[in-house]
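Why do we care about 3D structure at all? Because function follows from shape, and shape follows, mostly, from sequence. That is the central idea of this module. The next example makes it concrete: a single protein chain, its amino acid sequence, and then its structure expressed as tokens.
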Amino acid sequence: MYFPVWWYSVGLLRFSKALGLFWLGQEESLGLSVWVRNIFVPMYGQRDIASRLISFVMRAVQIIFRGLILAFLLLILLAIWLGWLLLPPFLLLALSFQVIK
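And the structure:
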């Protein structure tokens, strides 16, 4: 009888924390925050205008693509989290259809 209470309290908290840590690990792996922090720093120490412009454009493109990857991953993780919430009611509904027949 404790299972539903655990599933929606301690289990949900642990599962949410694990998903959050996974997402933070992926952000660290992609290094998005490093790219954002260094967007105005010229690459390879080149200080002329052309090098600064090229560095800015390249970093902006990297930030956009890496941000899209993280946003897509976030949508997947939110779907997984929603699946965690909906799994017990779905199983009860499926079981009720089996009992009714």
